[in-house]
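Q: We require from you a single protein entry containing the residue sequence and its fold in token form, and nothing else.
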Amino acid sequence: SLSSQAAQHPRVHQLPQTNQLKALMTIIRDKNTKRSDFVFYSDRVIRLLVEEGLNYLPVNDKEVITPMGVPFQGVSFQGRICGVSIMRAGESMEQGLRDVCTSVRIGKVLIQRDERTAQPKLYYSKLPKDISDRWVLLLDPMLATGGSAMKCIEVLIEAGVKEDRILFINLICAPEGALKMLEKFPSLHIVTAEIDESMDVQKFILPGLGDFGDRYFGTED
């Protein structure tokens, strides 16, 4: 199946599929979960995703001396990072990134479908000036077709970011979208919590969790 194909791709990194994660995902997928719980449990998963994403950053060896006067052979992160959120749902992931990396810089990109061409179109982008020197955690909770995310990656590459320094951080992805993204950007990393079965005709992820941004920000009709 496409799901197992995506799961086995060397650049798709799924969170460890533990009972704890499954319990968190069950709460946020449940249509009867109230908004305060949706936000609280989504934030927990987002934090796990950010921590996992940091595992793919390069490190240098570093020796420190402990309070016992003994040297300890450790490591320190080599590169500087920044976040870029794909508005609007991606903004829900900014706090999780700040919880782990306190003064991190966060850029924003707004991409919407052009009604005439049905293609994703860049409407707004505000990126850190030195983004080309940084590793980028690209934030978007739902990856369906991958159209907006791929457009956003193009924007990052045009700004000088190296493709292999982009980590796409995501809660739920449709396997088609993940595979399409990696076909176009083979040195990208995708860090995700769960890979779903497929998409419906309107390109909503199934089983999915509905519209993440609406449920998180409380703007459902």
